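Q: Hi! First time doing this. I have a protein sequence and I read that you can turn it into a structure. Is that right? Here it is:
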Amino acid sequence: MVIIRRMLCIVLTASCLSLSAYNDHRNVACDSLEAVLSGGNPPEGERLLGLYDELMRGYLPYDARKAADYGHRAIALSYKLNDLSTRAYVLRHFGLLSYGREDYDEALEYFTWALAVTDSMARSRRYTEKNIDDARSALYGSIANVYNLQGKAHLAIHYYQLALPIFEKYRWQESRAVLHYNLGELYYSMGNIESSEEHFLSTATLGESAGDSLMMAYGWKGLLGIYVQQGDYVKARDVATRCLAYYHAHRVEEAADYPVVLALLVQLNMMHGHENLALAGAYAREALSLADSLLFENRSAVYAACCRLSMAQGCWQEALDYGLQTIRPDSSATDADAGCYRMLAEIYAQLGQKDKSREYIDKMYNTMLRFATEHYQSGLSQMEVIYETQKKEERIVALGKQHSLLQWLLGVTAVAALALVVIVVLLVVTHRRKRKLLTAQVAMATEAKERHLLARDLHDGLGGMLSLLRLKTERGEETLPLIDSIHTELRRTAHHLMPDELLRNGLCPALHDFALSVPGAEFQGVGDIALDKNRELVLYRCAYELVNNAIKHAQAGRIVIQLMQDKGQVTLSVSDDGKGMTLSPEDHRPKEGMGLQNIRERIAPYHGQLDIVSVNEMGTDINIIMPL
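A: Yes, that's right. Below is the predicted 3D structure, encoded as structure tokens:
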């Protein structure tokens, strides 16, 4: 929603963005300039182009048709004379014509076109840095004004901030003051009070430096609104004294802002601990006497202040009359609208009209929700535009650098030819060396990863089988089939293949057969087990490692392997009756060796969880839970 005080500031910005560059030429004697055109010795070339430019700017404020006519003549002649500077200014004035018709999309097209021309100016080296900066800052300010009027705060701030360094570079004080005020208003509308206060302070300081009482008052007015909102009576009273002095003295010229200042003074004199309702009433009556001549936004601020005063005095029906005047006639959703609904909900509650109170509570909630949603979505889209704009600007800069480099190369062709050959040879050699180095680095990294995987598979798969082989050997049992299995597993591990039993029959049969081969072990499958091959391999390796630990470290006599699956997860449990795991002295939790660390690495990609419960001399229960 466009705030009237922001519109006033924008009008001011358009006319005085720079003392040196942004003369609006409203005093140009257009009749005498046209007489020069129709005289006996009409100008030609650059003088004629300058005359067209002067006439366009002269007619711009009050005769759009004539301004456009002279603008078209200037554009055509600027191409003939290759005058980029005049073309950029004329295009900006065409944008201002569209801006005046509220055709903001067309205005942005002209401003963007003019920016492209300023980029060409920078590359041509025929124009001074100040000339280029002058044109760019004017365009940045114009683009920001359009986005400001459209309520696109992020985009407006972005372009104001592009103009600000240029103003600071040439110490254009009034231009800086206006721009800081606009930024303060925008940040205030976004709820960034800290940044808003900084910019309003800069406005007042720069206005004082430039001897501009209007800019000083604009900064004070912004600060007064912030301090009143924050409840800082001391700061607000200090600023209010200076602010009221200016606006009362200029109440005719500042007819739109003076009632807003009075409304802030009403609130100032209602602050807790500093109430002066008589003085607040005097300010309210003066503001009300001016309200009928105001547009809605300023009038709403006056009625809202009077509503709060009536509420403080307990005059609830009077407060209701003022509160209803603050309701916006359109369907916009602003923070101010939500505040009005909150007041009305409280008033209706005091009047005993509970249904109306609930109605306005709902309106307040829905407005706040809609306001937040619209600002969030709008902010995202604006940031996307800024991002795309910055990418385009970076590409333009890159193209400019390439163009400059090409011109330099063409100027020193004889020497550059030989140098280019040398450079190319060096680049090729360097590229080959880098490629060889990169290849070696990749090979080393790949080799290290391969070694890690191989070590893990050897430890988890063959380690368990070798432990089982040792156990069978100690007991004098048949070992030849197991040796054959170890041989097969070794070959498959070397090629990162799945175990043969698992590949042929699936996880449950493979674990069942594995349990049969381990003395004192048994397998239990619960539910319909249906897993992909990768999960099957992970769980199979984990079961091998856990059984290996039970045999090798826990000296277990009985081991139970259990596999369960439901809709959301699969669980592998290995329980034994061994001597339990050694506890860490630091946190009294079971110590984890390489085997358990390997298990954690295996299940991590599947968001698996490893739970260990171990009691000394009573056994260990280990559960692996893997979501599906």
